[in-house]
Amino acid sequence: MAKVGKRYKKAQEMVDRSKTYEIEKALEIAKSSATAKFDESMDVAVNLGVDPKHADQMVRGTVVLPHGAGKKVRVVAIAKGEKDTEAKEAGADYVGSEDIIKKIQDGWLDFDKVVATPDVMSMVGKLGKVLGPRGMMPNPKTGTVTFDIGRAVKEIKSGKIEFKVEKAGIVHCSFGKASFDLAKLLENFKAFITAVIKLKPASSKGKYFKAITISSTMGVGVKVDTTEVMNLVKI
Fold first, then answer.
1. Which of 14, 50, 129, 224 has its CA 20 to 30 A from that of 36?
2. Given this model, what pLDDT does residue 71 score?
3. What is the pTM (predicted TM-score) of this model?
């Protein structure tokens, strides 16, 4: 069994594992437990009452966090002509078409997100085996395949994130940094939770939020009162 460090033990003492907390208190505890030497991410894990094995219960979407995720996102835009220029002006870090595709095929992966226009997807399809397993393949469902490529780039650079339910029915999301003040973390959290609620499948029966836990990268998990969260969010 791995040895538990003094810092983690101290963080554990801040949390009563037998209870759930109101979201603001949970955020305060999770933020306080972030004592690493780097600026830890604030993460949320939501256990949903869905069965992802059924296509009609898949929960997948995007959300623009009001205050961003607190990290720089390097965006590749694959487009031609005027759309190439549009992507550059919107702030894309790398822009191109055949040249970018070949560079990625040759092993270059120094980026975080890829967006593309529909007319180049026949070429981008060659990158499926490279980008697919890394979750970076452009997809119309997440807004990364669009002719409005300038808007797509701006949204990603300003804090747009993607999320998808895993096989166990859990959705994970990083919604800020421990250095963010509580008000910003709360607004980002609410934006994410609202997006998840809006995507509730009609075929999902019973309790939608089975459990919600927030934590910093190296901190302890803090269970959140799911009823309070549902009441907090106005749809």
1. 224
2. 86
3. 0.82
